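Instructor's aside before we start: the two examples that follow are unrelated to each other. I chose them only because their records fit on one page, so don't look for a connection. First example below.
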Amino acid sequence: MTDKDLRARAIALYDRFTHDHHDRRAFLAELTTLAGSAAAANALAAAIAADPAAAAIVPADDKRLKTGEASWKTGTDRTMTGYRASPANAKGPLPAVLVIHENRGLNDHIRDVTRRVALEGFLAVAPDFLSPAGGTPADEAKAREMIGALDLAAAVQDGAATVRWLKTDKAGNGKVGAVGFCWGGAMANRIAVAAGSALGAAVPYYGPAPDPAEAARVKAAMLLHYAGTDERVNATAKPWIEALKAAGVPVQSYFYEGTFHAFNNDTSAERYNKAAADLAWDRTIRFLKERLG
C-alpha cells in the first residue's frame, strides 16, 4: 500500500467515525490495523483531526474588524447565540452572511472563518446551533454527540429565523447569504429550502443534500463545492444539482479533483488542500458579492 493509499483509507475511516458510528474504539482498532501500530494510528488520527490549537488566519483582535458575541430570538421560547464580525470602518450597510459550523459546533476555527468573511466586506454572523443545548462545549467529541442529538427540524427553523433576523439588521443592506462546511454545508442546503426568498445566496461546502423533491422551494442562488474523493457526500450531489436546475434555481457546482472531505479546513493537516481551498474561497467571495451586493 502506498502512502497515498494509506492516507486516503485512513481519512475514509475517520469520515465514517465522525459522521456515522462515532465509536472511537472501533475507529482506532481499524486504523491500527491499517497503519501497522497503535503509535502510527494515533499519529495519523491526530494529523487528520482538526487541531483546536491551530493558529488563526485572522487574529481575534484584528484592528480591521469589529467582533463580539451576539444573541437573538428565533422563536418565542428559543434564543440563539453566536459570533459576529464586520469591517471596523464600514462606510454603509453591508450584505450579511451566515457562517455555519461543522459538526464540532461553533469553535475557534469557525470564528476565524467568520472574521475572514467579514474582511471581504460582509457583516458575518456564525450561529451556535448548539445554543438550545447549552452551547458548544470545549470537548469536540461531546460537541459531535450533541450535534447528533439535535432536533434537526428545529435547528433548520432556527437557521431560517436567523436569516430573517439578519435581513432587518441595521448594519445590513437587507440581503443575506449563507456559507456552511460539512454539517454546516448540509444545513446551508436545508436553510435554503426553509428560508425561501429571504435567503439570497447559499454556498454549501461538501454538504449532504436534502431530498431532491425539496429543490423547488429554493429561491437562493446556489454555489456548491464538493471534494473529489468524498463518496459519501457526492452520492447525494448529482440528484440535488439536477433537481435545482430543473426547478430553475441559479446553480453552480464544482468538484475539486483529488481532494478529501473538509479540504477547506486548514486546521486539519491531512485533509486541507490549499490550492482547492483558495480557489473555492475566491469563487465563494465573488459569488456572494455578485448576489448580495
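Example two begins here.
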Amino acid sequence: MRVLVVEDEVMLGDAIAEGLRQETFAVDVVTDGAAALERLAVNAYDVVVLDRDLPVVHGDEVCRAIVDGDGGERVLMLTVSTTLAERVDGLSLGADDYLAKPFAFAELVARIRALGRRSRPAVAPVLERAGIRLEPRYRQVTRDGRHIVLARNEFAVLEELLRAEGAPVSAEELLERAWDENIDPFTTIVRVTIRSLRRKLGDPAVIETLTGVGYVIR
C-alpha cells in the first residue's frame, strides 16, 4: 500500500513516515499543500494522511482536489481541533476519516489499513493464493502452514501480487506500489526482490515471470 503523508511539522511527518515504513507501507512525505498536489498529479496513492492546517495551499483545498479528481485516494485528515463541529466540517469536505492530534500511532495505522480496504481494489484482511497466506495487519506470511520471514519490500511486493488475484503485475507497477519516490526508476531491485521471494517461498515456485508483461501468482 502506498501512502502520502502531508504534514508541515517536519519532525512529526518524518516520524509518521518512518513508523509506517516499518508497517510495510511505501511512504512519501511533503510539508505543504502545493507539494501534495504535485505528488498527487504524478503518483497513485491508496491513502493520503493530510494535515488540515497546511501552508501554501490549505489542507481543505487539497482535500477538495482529491475528491474532485476521483483518483480513488482515501483521505485521513489530521488536526489539532477536537470539536465536533470541526470534525463534521472536515468530513463534509470529502475526507474519509478524521483523527485529532495528539494520536496513538497504533490507531493511525489501524485507520489507514481500514481506509486501504476501501481503496483500489479493496485490501482484504487476509490474502490467500497458491498455499500462501498473507495477513497485512500482523505482517505475517505462511506457505502451507510454514511461517516465512520477509523484509519490508519483499512483503509489499508479495502483497501486490496477491492483490492482483491471478492477473499479471508489471515491474513498473511493483516499483510504484512497494517503494517510495526516491527509488531509482532504472533500478533492478524488483527483479532482485522477486528472486529473493522465490527463494524464501520455496518449491514449487509460485511466482511466474511473463516476459514483457510482469509477474503473476497463478
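The two ends are 21 Å apart (CA to CA).
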